[in-house]
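Notes to self after the Tuesday call (sharing in case useful).
The group wants a holo model before anyone commits to mutagenesis around the pocket. I volunteered. Ligand is 2-acetamido-2-deoxy-beta-D-glucopyranose. Logging inputs and output together so the record is complete.
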Amino acid sequence: MHFSRLLQDSLVLTLGLASLAAAMPKQIVARQSTWNPPSNLVLPLQQVWDHEVATYSNALGFNNYGYDQVMANGGYLNFCVRWDSSQNLSEAQRAQVLTALQRSMKKWIDWLVGFDGFPYSSVPVNIVGYAVKSTSQFQGSTSGYDIYTTKDSGGIPECDPRCGRFFHQDGNYNSCPGGAARHYDMSLWLTDGFGGGAGGDWGQRIGTEYFLSNINSENIHILLHEMGHSFALDDFYDWTPTGVSNFIMLAGSSSVITDFDGWMLRDWWRHLKTRYNLGTPVTTTTARTTTTATRTTTPATTATAVRTTTTTTRATTTGSSSGGSPLWGQCGGANWTGPTTCAQGTCTYSNPYYSQCL
Ligand SMILES: *[C@@H]1O[C@H](CO)[C@@H](O)[C@H](O)[C@H]1NC(C)=O
Ligand SMILES: *[C@@H]1O[C@H](CO)[C@@H](O)[C@H](O)[C@H]1NC(C)=O
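Result:
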């Protein structure tokens, strides 16, 4: 099991945004360079971290989170757009798509800039390609873009897998016609008639209509939520951490990234950053030694134990439900050996590696 699970977020649409006005969070007042969250967020952040490590199959071993992609590139992200739509696409629209992606990604990245050794002051986002049903949909100049008519096994436009990070997590793009410079890290997958959204290390999927009608909005909240998944953040369908009730990853509760979302993102960064050989941080020797010792001990023992327990529990649950996978559960995909039917929902194809009960 890997992180390419699809997280279907139909709940995002169930609340009108008007009801969110009261929940608009304050702007971030001061950037903090170390792990020092506001006191009211300490407990819920710990709960979230413990829950993620307990329920993800390999939380600290998985190597294709958004952080990994940024670091592998040396500080940028390339996107490819899957234009899973019957609409044409003008040059003006493409410029808006790029601006929307850049604006949205920046809202997350800004939480990492200046924090705990994150080495970049910005993370430029570029779109290197489009996958279309027909090249005639792509109006105007194609300059700067690779245009793909490749399809996935479900017949849906897909950017060339030879150029995709999801398919080449070792960073070897020798088979990509344009080489590493033309590779893409994430896909923005826009599907006609798609409600809610889905996100993972492979990118984000949202409805074409929703995206185009919100393309100039400051906060395209479903996209922001799905980008959170690309950076390892979880959903909160069945529980809520203590004392926090409005944040973008709690679908439908916030139209903006809140302080709590930002600190959840930072929590992942501080746990993952040791894999990046960032060099010596400017702190005292004493402090550094202490921190390293603590961090090494905790994930290695506690996390593994917890994860094993949870996996067992989950396997038992799955096995006993003869009716198939639960709602949101996996029900198909390459190498999937679990149930291929759903106890609740319909088994829905997402990509060659993943089908999900929705
Ligand atoms: C797309 O553009 C082509 C011409 O380039 C036109 O024939 C077709 O009707 C357009 N399709 C839509 C859905 O607008
Ligand atoms: C599926 O299994 C094959 C053979 O073990 C392996 O090479 C491949 O990477 C696996 N694919 C995925 C998506 O895990």
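Two things stood out.
The helical segments are 39-55, 66-73, 91-109, 208-213, 221-230, 259-272, 285-320.
Confidence is low (pLDDT under 50) at residues 1-30, 282-322.
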